[in-house]
Amino acid sequence: MQGTRTKDFWAGVVYMVFGLATMLLARGLPMGSTARMGSGYFPTLLGGLLVVIGLIAVLRGLRAPGETVPRIHLRPAALVIGATFFFAAALEWLGLVIALPLAMLIAAAASQNFRLSLVPLLGLLCFTAFCVLVFLRGLGVPMPMLGTLFGG
């Protein structure tokens, strides 16, 4: 199949995967009816719409020659996704002021151009201070500034 490396094809596959996953996760929720929607109605409808859009994109990618997708580099993707999971797992244990800069460093390591120097470190500190001010102080989001490891 010559058209399977097009951006349309792979975007369609991603839409279909997310749509099917959404429908699968929502299947245990009550559907209700159109007049009185249950908690599973909207996710199921949205997931079905994603599947249809994905199917259209896949068919378009197979039918018409399009721009091909270059080789996918797994290391950068794994580092960025891993940084998100690290932050979620470490927030309670380390707290925001430690987990956030560490997660940003993990994600930044995905770039071939990243070098640890004074400017990126100052950026990490400023962004962390900004997040503490906005989320903890301003909005009152219930997350620890220092985690259980530090007695927080």
TrEMBL record:
Residues 10-144 form the DUF1468 domain. Pfam families: TctB (PF07331). This is Small permease of tripartite tricarboxylate transporter. Keywords: Membrane, Transmembrane, Transmembrane helix. InterPro entries: DUF1468 (IPR009936). It comes from Paracoccus yeei. The chain crosses the membrane at residues 9-29, 41-59, 79-110, 116-136.
